Amino acid sequence: MDLSPVLDGFGVVLEPTNLLYCLIGVVVGMLIGVLPGLGPAATIAILLPVTIGIEPVSSIIMLAGIFYGAQYGGTITSVLLRLPGEASSVVTVFDGHALARQGRAGTALGIAAIGSFIGGTVSIVALSLLAPLVAGFALDFGPPEYTALAMLGILLVSTVSSGHRLKALAAACIGLLLATVGRDGFTGAERFTFDNLSLADGLDFVPIAMGLFGLGEILYNLEERHRATQTPVTVANVWPSKADLRQSSGAIGRGSVLGFVLGILPGGGATLSSLAAYAWEKRRAKDPERFGKGAVEGVAAPETANNAAATSSFIPLLTLGIPANATMAVIFGALLIQGVSPGPQLVTQEPELFWGVVNSMYIGNILLLIMSIPLVGLFVKILRVRATVLAPITVLITLVGVYTVNNDVFDIVLVIVFGAVGYLMKKLGFDPGPLVLAFVLGSLLEDSLRRSLLIFDGDPTGFFTRPISGVLLATFVLVIVVPPVRAAIRRRRTHKELV
Amino acid sequence: MTAHGGSGDEPSTEPARETSLADALHEVEAEVQEYRPPAAGPTGNAVVAVVVLLLGIAALIGSWSLGVGSARVPDSGTWPLLVAVVLVGLGVALLVTVKKTSDAERFSRTSWLVAAGLATMVVFVLVIEHIGFEIPAALLAFVWLRFLGRESWRVSVVVSIGVVVVFYAVFVGALSVPIPHLF
């Protein structure tokens, strides 16, 4: 492996502007992680207009920092308030808050920070080794492979993510349909534009993401479904003892590996890996009854895994151009806005962007470790900021921000419409993530499908005779068929037992 | 992707062993969302399923008129038609499983807060081209603070004026964004 682009990447990161954007990213990430309400996907969506004026490398460094920074911040509220700042920190509540009630909040936060740092760093090293290989493998992918890959990616994100599977798939279909709005690139015909000139060039990604994730989430939170925030306890002595470190070292090691692997899979990501890591530790513990009552491993494992997963979920995006979760879909959109199309060519054609972003994560993790151990008291104070004050400010940033992209009032209309849709979707149990992901991949999918059919001369069995697209599509079919079959078998078994 | 967004069944490989963890998770989520409105009933779920179905049918008709094409010569309508067929299927499946669905929330009195919040945004976009962003922005912030957020009068007035001043300084002053402004 040629190391010079990797080293050049460090050169890119160490430029003062990029260091600054990395710092801004991780601080914003920490903040939104601490504040319940907006998640990383929403925050990144709201900041999309800001990134337009920034260099591509700097803007992606910043957005990435927000994503993994939120994993650190989410821990703080889980431990101190039993209020998970992010979905990926929900399991941390069990043992983290138990530790806090025993007066060991500092230990929990310290272990979480160290675990996050190690998980993140292990994952970056593995990413640096694996990503160029995946990209090299994918260089030969033609339209049929991309068709299969995009279909499988959308399916996995819709089915693996939490929530109702049918509803998630319906959301994905609507995303695919929204992507067809505008002029058809092959025939020039206008599709679903209703003779509206503003729709002729298709729907823009920015108002959709800002509306569904940003405004939708703010409106959803207006219904006061949260407990009022209590004043948190003061945190003393964040350094964990040697005994605590020894006890959690295994959990951190296993969490790093598990998080890395699950993060790569579409739909896996930080939340699933934190759950899996917790379950794994509990299962292999000699005395599982300690879990939930303040086991240090119960904090170390999920916090390590969610950070490792946050990092490794960049692999499918940066090497295949397929986002693995909702946040990656928004970062994908940010790259497209910058004129960069992520895919296997990225590593070789834009090495300074690829390695700049990857290597910035080392720096970001060091910054986060500093912020979460010596400066944790500062972030605890931020918990006093009220959501009721932040909400209108965020709404105005969204409305004015979306206007600045094209200086077009129609974009404000769109963002409000999608904000209302996003609220209704969340309210009615539809995850907006698959919609945004499918929208982002929609034109790629249709394009490759039509090109494939040209290659195959209209014979769809051609997809199955090519090895890679065949395997991908076989997996696609298995993912659809296996769960209902298994459920049916289980039903029959319980039925037999009853009889 | 906040904590409350991630409710629902977690995909577990061994349901029997995982139930305790899944249960505990639900407990935490329920606790975090103490004030969460009750789940929608079968009628509500049926309406949702019908809306999905209608969307699918509308897309089906729209794609049909664009030209169906064939596998050999795909037309503009081919791809949306395929997606619309899947969407119709999903709508039917949702309609069949209405009784097993429990993840939609009922609209309650607090939903009016959302309608009010949306109304402030609609006003904002309707008047911005005529009187600039300052007055509607201040009004929006004030309504959200005082009436939706139940902040004190003083906080509401100070924050809503402060926000507009900062926005003016940043967008009009520093960035010279051509956003319609009054002053």
Provide a descriptive summary of the structure in words.
- The complex is a heterodimer of chains A (499) and B (183).
- Chain A has 499 residues and is mostly helical.
- Chain A contains 23 helices and 2 strands.
- Chain A has a two-stranded antiparallel sheet with strand order 1-2.
- Chain A starts with a helix and ends with a helix.
- Chain B has 183 residues and is mostly helical.
- Chain B has 3 domains: 3-32; 42-100; 111-174, no CATH class.
- In chain B, 66% of the residues lie in helices and 0% in strands.
- Chain B is built from 6 helices and no strands.
- In chain B, helix 2 (42-66) packs antiparallel against helix 3 (78-96), helix 4 runs antiparallel to helix 5 (134-148) and helix 5 runs antiparallel to helix 6 (153-174).
- The model of chain B is unreliable at 1-18 (pLDDT under 50).
- Chains A and B meet through helix 3, helix 9, helix 10, helix 12 and helix 19 of A and helix 1, helix 2, helix 3, helix 4 and helix 5 of B.
Short description:
The complex is a heterodimer of chains A (499) and B (183). Helix content of chain A is 73%, strand content 1%.
Number of β-strand runs of chain B: 0
Spatial strand order of the main sheet of chain A: 1-2
Number of domains of chain B: 3
Q: How many DSSP H or I helices of chain A?
A: 23
How much is the radius of gyration of chain A in Å? 23 Å
Structural class of chain B: mainly alpha
Q: Helices and strands of chain B, in N-to-C order?
A: HHHHHH
Give the percentage of residues in beta strands of chain A: under 5%
Along the chain, the helix and strand elements of chain A come as HHHHHHHHHEEHHHHHHHHHHHHHH
- The poorly predicted ranges of chain B are 1-18
Distance N to C terminus of chain A: 63 Å
Task: Please state the structural category of chain A.
Answer: mainly alpha
Mean pLDDT over all positions of chain A:
88
**Approximate helicity band of chain B:** 55-70%
- Using the alpha-carbon principal axes, give the shape of chain A: globular
* Overall average pLDDT of chain B: 83
